[in-house]
């Protein structure tokens, strides 16, 4: 999977913090709740926040090539602006990072590794009932733990 270039900014133009908190962009209500938890944590850890925009690819062969990048609808861009503005209120460096994926859980692990995340706020879609969902969440937690990364899925 390929990570597209991102642009981070700080309020005073200073160097990026050494720690990174990755927040998956999911449904708007979940994402705003995640940011409410991530921003105070970022202040405590002196961390930047990277908003992860997962981009599904139609064919596995398109991963990592331009055909795999779909255009972002205007309503999504407006929502992304809301997220960035809410993080800026705290004075925390923020960036939006698009990331192609075939499966959400594997994309979260790879994005975390590629971006050297210390904390990941993420959710997984519920597909085949509660037990299977819990197994997928535990798998994701273990994979992130192997990277030395804290996983936050509920709050």
Topology of this structure?
Elements: E1 19-24, H1 28-45, E2 47-56, H2 74-88, E3 94-101, H3 104-114, E4 119-121, H4 130-146, E5 150-152
Parallel strand pairs: 1-2, 1-4, 2-3, 4-5
Helix pairs in contact: 1-2, 3-4
Description:
By secondary structure, the protein is of the alpha/beta class. It is built from four helices and five strands; from the N terminus they run βαβαβαβαβ. The chain has helices at residues 28-45, 74-88, 104-114, 130-146, and strands spanning 19-24, 47-56, 94-101, 119-121, 150-152. The chain has a five-stranded parallel β-sheet, with helices on both faces. Residues 1-8 have low confidence and may be disordered.
């Amino acid at each position: 999977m390929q990570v597209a270039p991102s642009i981070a900014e700080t309020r005073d133009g200073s160097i990026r913090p050494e720690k990174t908190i990755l927040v998956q962009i999911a449904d708007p209500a979940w994402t705003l709740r995640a940011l409410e938890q991530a921003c105070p944590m970022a202040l405590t850890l002196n961390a930047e926040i990277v908003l992860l925009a997962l981009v599904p690819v139609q064919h596995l062969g398109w991963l990592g090539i331009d055909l795999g990048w779909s255009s972002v609808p205007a309503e999504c861009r407006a929502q992304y602006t809301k997220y960035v503005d809410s993080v800026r209120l705290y004075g925390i460096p923020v960036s939006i990072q698009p990331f192609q994926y075939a499966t959400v859980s594997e994309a979260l692990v790879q994005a975390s590794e590629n971006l050297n995340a210390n904390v990941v706020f993420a959710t997984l879609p519920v597909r085949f009932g509660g037990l299977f969902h819990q197994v997928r969440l535990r798998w994701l937690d273990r994979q992130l733990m192997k990277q030395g990364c804290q996983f936050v899925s509920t709050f």
